[in-house]
Fold Glycosyltransferase RgtA/B/C/D-like domain-containing protein.
Amino acid sequence: MSFLSGKFHSKWARLTFCFLFLLPLLYPFLLKPGEQLYSDHLGKFILGESVERNGFLSGNLVLPSRSLDPEGNYCPTECIRIGDELISPFPAALGYVYAIFLPWSGIVGVYVVTAILILLSFLFLSSLWDWDPIYLGVLVLASPFLVNGYFFPDVGIASFLFLAGSFLFLRSGPSSSWFRFVSAGFISASSAWFRIESIVFPLFFIFFLSIYKFYNVEERRRILGYSVGFFAGVVLLLGIQYVLYGHPLGPRFSFNQPTMFLPPWKKWEIYSGLLIANPNRLGFFGYTPGFLFVLFFFLYYILIKKNPLRRSIAFEVSNRDLFIFSGLGAFLALVVSAPNDGIIDFGSRYLHLSLPAFAGMFLILFENIGEKFRKVAKIVLYSILLYSVYISYSYTQILGKYGRKTTKLNAIYLEQKPDLVVVQIRTYSQILGKYFFQTPSVWLMREADIKNFFSKNNPEGFEKILFVQTKASILENLNDADPFLRNKYYASISQALGPDFKKVWSENREDVLLFSMERKK
């Protein structure tokens, strides 16, 4: 398959392809690892450091604030209490990856390795698509496949494992060994250790393979081998998570459970955030509107042109096409069952593994455009893709800018040198960054939390406390001349700490109010 009509061998085509292929190695410079320790990223760092400090025997979070908050009511990162342990909702397997690299390479090593795995993913996909530069260009520049895979290491590692297993299977023949088929299925299933929703993709791959190919005796052997490996991997994962966490889907299930089983007609807010946009993030089609055309074409293509009920065309469906069909089928299933990710975060992260299938279906769409409308259709589709290229560029810039902003908060922590940090919103634990394990930090969101925490922890045990208050909670009462007037959160702090503490420093920023309270000598 080539859409350059043999021009791929030109100098500029080769240079463009090489640039796209090696672009992941540029991302550690565009989104510097040391500037990504905030929000979920800080939580994953905390999990990895905890695994390392526990000697790789446990994912129990080693929080400096544990003695101040033994019940884990005020964790400065997301945590779930299971028995006597505080467990991160992030994948334990990711914590072990972090733990391997943190001691000798720091956080940089984790992101560099992730970038290399994305590069290898490009290698697998480019090989499957006969090194077509149009395919790689759509995937890299017009979709969030690269930036999501790098920015969220769990996403990047999961996609690598799924694609590695798929590549091993798609490049095998009927005469290949049974072990190769089983290994391909097991490797694909291993992606679920990092993103539990990735189970759906190989499951749909098996489904479509069975529909189109199971009648063929030679193909049946491959399908059975892949299925055995996949289900062995899934059973191992679900069994271990059940033993460790009391639920086969693991600790993250506790966070998503409230919306997981809502009927579809009550999920419109989730669907709109997941697919289009919400106030904070673009959704899947908001990022790449061209893929909406691809989805509609897929429904037409599989129901009309490649209908599995028409047995006569079964031999015309390649394994690569079935990989595309399964990716889009899994996409539809995941959208219907979407948890709360569509509301709180970037939609394409949850649907990430479907991106290679959408890019592949985009090429099939191009192939099937009638001659009469080909020129106009190409102009329209390329124009829409250019919008997505701009979004990719802007998204990377925004993430880089926000990352640099977090390092400035790190500097404030170093200047103030408190012996306790209190944040009103967990995200602002980023003020500690890589210094998280040096100073206790707690999340006290409401006035009642402040009163309860300091009733159990005598303020006299602290010399200096740094507070990070979100201005969203006081915006309606904010006095620009003095943001501490009519500030109920600050009033609760002053009351809980008592007259022995005084405010010695403050800074009124765009989104937060920072201040230090110091005990009088």
